[in-house]
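Journal club prep, notes for RB
We'll compare a predicted complex against what the paper describes. Inputs for the farnesyl diphosphate case:
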Amino acid sequence: MSIASSSKVPRHTAIIMDGNGRWAKERGWPRLKGHEQGALNVETICEACIHEGVEYLTLYAFSTENWKRPALEVAGLMLLLERFLSEKVAMMNKNGVRLAAIGRMADLPEAARKRLERAIEETSRNTRLTLTLALNYGGRDEIVDAVRSIAAEVGEGKLKPDQITAETISSHLYTRTMPDPDLLIRTSGEMRISNFLLWQLSYTEIHVTSKLWPDFGADDLHAAIVDYGSRERRYGASVENLTNSANAS
Ligand code: FPP
């Protein structure tokens, strides 16, 4: 990739969907109502991504830290996931959405894991948008898993320590088949990445909006993409180098 290249549409958009709890609280409703509305919004944003020309959408749906929430909320989130997976396969097939997942899937409740595997298989031939759900996902755990598998290859003599490069690490992450995100959106105003895609976000543009996730609509996605389009991506180069390299190419 040339240093100056910056497509106006972020090929890969990742979203930290925050604010479901506050959305429900504002209405005097239980938190799960907010998650329910948040799950409904996933369909809206998938369709909006297709409309905008985004090819990869990665959503932070359940972090490794989310297990610390009250048992009822965790159980409700798992049921919502199951419901989403059984009800939305038709929408995904209609829109050309291929489902994928990243995270430590083995620790999900069996019913949710089975549904997930089925939905991934049933949408595997779609090519318009890859929707990746980060489930039981933690960025540090992902790096731990990558390091373990690289160490195993070194132990088996397949790889020498001095052959390990940044590319080796990228190719052992859960996201090895997709490009790094061009744009990260975080809803509900918090300025943190919360253990999401730690390695992959190195050069990603970040857009934080005060909108709560259930209220984040197609227009808000469009505004984030316009904001992204106005950024000059430098990948660590100076402005002068960037100008020279743009002129040279
Ligand atoms: C943060 O809101 C959101 C989550 C912990 C999980 C995101 C889950 C969904 C959008 C619903 C399920 C998704 C799918 C794909 C079925 P929060 O509870 O932290 O909000 P708060 O910060 O306002 O309390």
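Talking point for the session: The longest strand covers residues 129-137.
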